[in-house]
Amino acid sequence: MTEKFSLFNASIIMSYRGNTPEREDNLYAVLRHFDLTYTDYTIFVMEADAAPKFDWKRLSDDKIRHVFFPNAGPFPKAMLYNTGAKLSQSDILVFNDVDCIAEPKAVSDCVRELIHFQAHDVLCPFWEMINVTGALKQQFLAEPRYEMFNGITKDALVPDTSILYERNAGGIFIFRRKDFVRVGGLNMAFKGWGGEDSELLHRATRLGLKWSSLGTPLFHMNHDSVNRDGWREQAMPNVELGNQSEHMPIEQLQALAEELRQFFVA
């Protein structure tokens, strides 16, 4: 029997739009992975679409809360993450893309670290992001346990794996709720895919939060494409918005955080 790891009553927040069968399959596999791997957590599946696609019949798990927003426009990831944080009653928030899994002990250790110690304020339980395709991904979808990825790193890839990002601020990141609110959460001016996680990294660190990453890989279940070639051009408005937070005067950044923080107190 696989050892289970406590998440110490953390809230897991996932944003979702099931616009392709691959994305749907990834979501249910990751949800099953949590059930097989962890204890002591609640998952908020935050869905935005023209109509809800989340299907309770595909699993039965009372640790999941499904929240739907009718929205057929550009995917509002920042709004979904912020609303999940607002609904949460937990001191610890784990923001987890619906197609990503990290080394389970690393995730549990990160949560415990933020509860009991002050050396870090934000933790990413990974460094590089490894894309998983083909037969290996199908194996995970059928039996979503982390053990099948043991030993795979950027320097020891196997068939059906490739480096998606050498380094990434998104995927999975873990905050104390009070710190997430203090810096204003994700910037809801971002529309569509891309850039919102990096902007939060720049804003949070410039406002004094200590953001650290572990040296373990994150595994990304493939969808749409095996690489991100061309995404920067599509997400250029978001990239430019993120660059503003990296370079604006600190007084202006503090004012932005105060403005964004109002979402959580309204």
In short:
This protein is α/β, with parallel strands linked by helices.
What does this structure look like?
InterPro entries: Galactosyl_T, Galactosyl_T_C, Nucleotide-diphossugar_trans. This is Galactosyltransferase C-terminal domain-containing protein. It comes from Ephemeroptericola cinctiostellae. With 266 residues, this protein is α/β, with parallel strands linked by helices. It has one domain (5-265): Alpha-Beta Complex (Spore Coat Polysaccharide Biosynthesis Protein SpsA, Chain A), CATH 3.90.550.10. The chain is built from nine helices and eleven strands. The protein has a seven-stranded mixed β-sheet. Helix 6 packs parallel to helix 8.
What characterizes the major β-sheet? 7 strands, mixed
Broad CATH class: Alpha Beta
What share of the residues lie within helices?
Answer: 25-40%
Question: What average pLDDT do the residues reach?
Answer: 93
Assembly state here?
single chain
- The Cα radius of gyration reads 18 Å
Structural class of the helix and strand makeup? Answer: alpha/beta
- How much of the sequence lies in strands comes to 15-25%
How many helices does DSSP assign? 9
In one word, what is the shape? globular
Q: Could you list the spans in which at least 5 consecutive residues all have pLDDT below 50?
A: none
Q: How many domain modules?
A: 1
Strands of the widest sheet, in order across it, are 3-2-1-4-9-6-10
Number of strands: 11
- Give the CATH superfamily: Spore Coat Polysaccharide Biosynthesis Protein SpsA, Chain A
N-to-C SSE string, H for helix and E for strand: EHEEHEEHEEHEEHHEEHHH
CATH topology: Spore Coat Polysaccharide Biosynthesis Protein SpsA, Chain A
Euclidean distance between termini CA atoms: 46 Å
The CATH architecture classification is Alpha-Beta Complex
